[in-house]
Amino acid sequence: MMEIILVRGTYDAGKTTISTLAYEELAKSADEVFLFNHYNDPIANLQYNPDNGEVYDFKAVLKIKGKIVVVITAGDEPWRLMINIDFLIDFVKKTFKVKIDILICCGRSSDKEGSVIDRLKKAHRSAVIHQVWTYKVDKALFPEQNAKRVKEIVGLVQQP
Predict the structure, then answer these.
(1) In a domain, 151, yes or no
(2) Residue 89 within any structural domain of the chain
(3) What sections of the chain are H helices per DSSP?
(4) Quick check: 39 and 45 in contact, CB under 8 A?
(5) Can you give the pTM of this predicted structure?
(6) CA–CA separation, 126 and 62 (whole Å)
(7) What are the tens digits of pLDDT across the range 88-135?
(8) Is residue 153 one of the residues assigned to a domain?
(9) CA distance linking residue 7 with residue 53, whole number of Å
(10) Sheet with 67-72, edge to edge strand ranges
């Protein structure tokens, strides 16, 4: 059964930043890492916007102590997230001949019909969904908030 860690928050609340930081922490202990850009092209490293230094959306598959962990940073458009999940389910099945154990993804805070949380619940009925909330706060508080959320995510991944 897949576990889903959904990083939730409003626009510009740090969902991609937290997912990226969690990816970077998890990658340190990964046996294998596969990275893809927004267009599903394989990439060697994370890519950054030269104008503002922010990471471009990416997808990653990590094999950590036998677990398959997937990270998807793009989640503002629920339909696109679902397409990305399907792409990675197929990739994992073809590459490792197993299913995804943990999916880390992002979504806006809305619970309405067609939202990320709504679509995940419908498409993955048996999955356990953990919600990690992030909030738009004073920029000075972002590092502390991000560290707490990343620790929470890594802790969920490292559970037996």
Answers:
(1) no
(2) yes
(3) 15-27, 78-96, 116-123, 142-158
(4) no
(5) 0.94
(6) 22
(7) 999 999 999 999 999 999 998 777 888 899 999 999 999 999 999 998
(8) no
(9) 21
(10) 42-43, 32-36, 59-64, 67-72, 102-108, 3-9, 128-133
In a domain, 158, yes or no: no
d(CA 110, CA 8): 9
Contacts of 48 (CB under 8 A, 6+ apart): 54, 55, 56
8 Å CB contact between 85 and 105: yes
Q: Identity (one letter) of the amino acid at 34?
A: F
Beta strand 3-9 pairing with 128-133: parallel
Under DSSP, the state recorded for 54 is P
Q: Is 26 helix (H, G, I), strand (E, B) or coil?
A: helix
Report which residue type is found at 62.
Answer: L
Residue 92, domain extent = 3-145
Tell me how far CA of residue 66 lies from CA of 16, 55, 77, 80, 126, in angstroms.
25, 28, 31, 28, 21
Among candidate residues 66, 67, 65, 76, the one with its CA nearest the CA of residue 19: 76
For the chain, what is the largest distance between any 2 Cα atoms, rounded to a whole number of angstroms?
Answer: 45
Count how many domains the chain has: 1
